[in-house]
Amino acid sequence: MSYDRAYWEQLWAKTLRDHPDKVARRPPNAELIAEVASLPPGHALDAGCGHGAETLWLAAHGWKVTAVDFSASALAHARSTAEALGSEIAARISWVEGDLSTWTPPPDAFDLLVCLYVHVAGSAEAMVQRMASGVAPGGTLFMLGHRPMDPATGKPTAAAGQVQISVESAVAALEPRAWEFAVAEERPRAIAGTGVDAVIRARRVP
Ligand SMILES: C[S@@+](CC[C@H](N)C(=O)[O-])C[C@H]1O[C@@H](n2cnc3c(N)ncnc32)[C@H](O)[C@@H]1O
After folding, report:
1. Is CATH 3.90.1580.10 the right assignment for the domain spanning 5-204?
2. Ligand 1 centre and the CA of 75: distance in Å?
3. Per-residue confidence of the chain (206 residues) as pLDDT tens digits?
């Protein structure tokens, strides 16, 4: 299966059409909130923002957010949700339709770069390095990757067949003198009840 733009666009269009309430109720990611809630708000990038739950949480907590995804349907839904929350929150968000396999963030631009559960077309290390290039000195890179197999059962997870960011790829990709890892570990998945997530929080040395 190819997890390309057409695949995601079709999936988002169907999901938003068939289950809009379920999508609207999906809370922002608990790992993200736990790891970044104490950071002072600045400029964040949400790479692969989907329907925008994390972007909206960040904006509601004072962050200016650039939110990138290649699904036009997901972005349209996210934008209208932001507008419904009011002009103050909506004005803090820039929605960008872009393909993260080639889209590169502006260099050293973001105090926080979030990339959650994005399937990588190509090498995971190259993806980590592309995302890391957008983090400002002193800024934070926070990434989650769903592992393709549940180590407890050996069964495939929802990410089977995908390449997502792993602890190994993040550690290999980031230059140790330039990055301090606060978290680089696998944790049981809080939602869906199966599998583990790679959890990465790294600070770029100022
Ligand atoms: C599993 S969803 C995760 C969405 C959100 N980050 C979350 O945690 O709920 C993956 C998202 O990444 C987007 N995506 C996948 N590959 C992408 C790419 N190459 N460029 C931009 N967006 C991509 C999909 O459209 C989808 O919204």
Report:
1. no
2. 11
3. 688 999 999 999 999 999 988 887 889 999 999 999 999 999 999 999 999 999 999 999 999 999 999 999 999 999 999 999 999 999 999 999 999 999 999 999 999 999 999 998 889 999 999 999 999 999 999 999 999 888 778 888 888 888 999 999 999 999 999 999 999 999 988 665 668 999 999 999 99
Q: List Cβ neighbours of 150 (8 Å cut-off, separation of 6 or more).
A: 156, 157, 194, 195, 196
Domain residue ranges of the chain, discontinuous segments joined by + = 5-204
Question: Residue 198's beta-bridge partner residues?
Answer: 145, 186
Ligand 1 pocket test: which of 8, 100, 162 has the largest number of ligand atoms within 8 Å of its C-beta?
8
